[in-house]
Design goal:
Blueprint: H1 2-15, E1 26-30, H2 36-58, E2 67-71, E3 74-86, E4 92-96, H3 99-104, E5 113-119, E6 129-137, E7 144-157, E8 162-191, E9 200-201, H4 220-228, E10 232-245, E11 252-260, E12 264-268, H5 272-303, E13 310-314
Parallel strand pairs: 8-9, 8-11
Antiparallel strand pairs: 1-13, 2-12, 3-4, 3-7, 5-6, 6-11, 7-8, 8-10
Helix pairs in contact: 2-5
């Protein structure tokens, strides 16, 4: 045991000192209240906060004025429609679910056979597609060259923005004397302005085909004009048409279609906290790298004593075991 310690002592003397522990020595700089060093400190960090905000703001997108999310709407057919068929020499065949409209057009009134079906393919309680078929009987010598149809739906959004409105699908196609037309397309939300982030939006939960409207307001062009003036509406887009020419024999004219109801892109105005959170992230993205630059500049200034300050050094304290 004695020889082991003697050997270790000889080895230390031969190789010199060995580091067994290290700790940083802190140097603290002090300056008076009216000193240039304190003024520089305030300018650096004040400028850091202001300049970082200016960069984040001027680069664009700091404050979130509009955001988007996707939602499949709850769409239900309201069993309301207006059909107008036009033949040669502007002859008309009309039918509507509005008794008042039918009474105004007794000479062109024609009762069709209507079939509709809602399909929920993924069984989530929301309709994924709407199928319809309208068969209009034709008399001898009658033919159809143009079709106009309005279908009315109940449209609801619930996930983030609550919206309940009465919406419509407008179908129009013209061709040679035909026996049938088939249309397919997607029901899409048309917004002129973003929705508010909370509350209930039921401004347009009013009748598109109003049986109490005046006679001029029951015309097709008046209905479409009022619908187009709305901020929130629906359109069939894109719409694809297949026109079947007529064989010349009297029979029926068929209007059929498939309306797909997929997820839609909904625009809304973010709430206060969402806007603050987004702005804070944009601000930090500029502040953190700028803080690194300012700290390196401050270290250079004080370590090299470019400005006058009082330096106190805290030395390590020895402790005896």
């Amino acid at each position: 045991f004695f020889f082991f310690f003697f050997f270790c002592a000889l080895l230390c003397c031969a190789t010199g000192l060995h580091r067994v522990y290290a700790a940083p020595v802190q140097r603290t700089h002090f300056a008076g209240l009216c000193s240039f060093a304190l003024f520089l400190q305030i300018v650096l960090f004040g400028g850091l906060l202001v300049f970082s905000y200016m960069i984040a703001y001027q680069s664009g997108g700091m404050w979130l004025r509009e955001d988007f999310y996707r939602e499949q709407p709850d769409v239900r057919f309201k069993h309301q429609m207006l059909l107008l068929l036009q033949g040669p020499d502007n002859t008309l065949l009309t039918w509507s679910t509005l008794p008042k409209y039918n009474a105004l057009t007794p000479s062109s009134f024609r009762v069709p056979t209507i079939k509709t079906q809602d399909q929920d393919r993924d069984h989530d309680g929301l309709s994924d597609r709407f199928l319809f078929e309208i068969d209009v009987p034709l008399q001898a010598g009658e033919s159809v060259q143009s079709v106009e149809l309005i279908l009315v739906f109940d449209y609801t959004l619930r996930e983030y923005v609550y919206l309940n409105m009465e919406s419509a699908v407008y179908i129009r196609h013209t061709g040679v004397a035909g026996a049938a037309v088939d249309v397919s397309g997607e029901l899409r939300l048309n917004q002129r302005e973003p929705f508010p982030h909370n509350g209930r939006r039921t401004l347009y939960n009013t009748s598109i085909l109003d049986n109490e409207a005046s006679v001029p307001e029951l015309q097709m062009k008046s209905i479409l004009r009022r619908y187009n003036e709305r901020n929130d509406s629906t359109v069939l887009s894109p719409a694809y048409y297949a026109w079947t020419p007529s064989s010349g024999q009297a029979g029926t004219f068929t209007v059929s279609g498939t309306v797909l109801i997929p997820e839609d892109r909904v625009s809304y105005r973010p709430g206060f906290w969402q806007e603050i959170k987004h702005g804070w992230v944009q601000y930090l993205a500029v502040l953190i790298p700028m803080l690194y630059v300012v700290n390196r500049l401050r270290d250079y200034v004080f370590v090299n004593q470019i400005v006058r300050s009082v330096v106190k050094r805290e030395c390590d304290k020895s402790h005896r075991a």
